[in-house]
Amino acid sequence: xxxxxxxxxxxxxxxxxxxxxxxxxxxxxxxxxxxLLDPPGRGGRGLRILDLGAAPGSWxxxxxxxxxxxxxxxxxxxxxxxxxxxLPPRFGRDLAAEGGFTFIQGDISAAEIREAILARxxxxxxxxxxxxxxxxxxxxxxxxxxxxxxxxxxxxxQALEPGGALAVKVFQGGDSQGLLKKIRExxxxxxxxxxxxxxxxxxETYYLGLGKx
Length: 213
Ligand SMILES: C[S@@+](CC[C@H](N)C(=O)[O-])C[C@H]1O[C@@H](n2cnc3c(N)ncnc32)[C@H](O)[C@@H]1O
Description:
Blueprint: H1 9-16, H2 24-34, E1 47-52, H3 58-68, E2 77-83, H4 89-96, E3 101-105, H5 111-119, E4 123-128, H6 138-159, E5 160-171, H7 176-186, E6 187-193, E7 204-212
Parallel strand pairs: 1-2, 1-4, 2-3, 4-5
Antiparallel strand pairs: 5-7, 6-7
């Protein structure tokens, strides 16, 4: 059985680099492979990003840091982050200090949160690392993860601009293949990708939709 109390390579690296969670390296790998934050033709400017399941804030911090060194800086970016939990004060403060960052606390499936999210669209990139609290029952966890991924795909359908991209976490099992099929209908290309930074024993993977139709 995995020992989650012992910091592994990725957790130690995250700590050294000032990120609150090791999950940042999953986004970094996807970004490097699929150019999520450098979509062709935009010169990296003017991105409007939605980060679902954003706490404790590593993905948002990675995005803001990447933009800070660019022409137009973080000012060229609009980043909306949503989570049930608040951001830890230290990282929340760093993020809030950057213009263009908004944090919404609540359930991505709740009607009032949906309205608040849609009001900040359209987006050019939607990310979802949202994950349910695990029960240890793999089918139950996979089903709950699939519901969250379907919600992210709903935002992809409603609030993603043409040409935009989506990357969403899903626990394998259940009907995750059905989700990939829907992604392929909505996007020119749909792929699954398991970053190396995922724990070896984890059954999570990411589905990507590239080029919203
Ligand atoms: C793996 S963590 C995300 C880590 C984050 N990407 C980072 O790099 O810091 C998954 C998050 O999904 C959030 N979450 C789960 N269900 C949610 C829901 N229905 N609405 C909003 N957030 C949710 C959890 O609160 C948790 O913070």
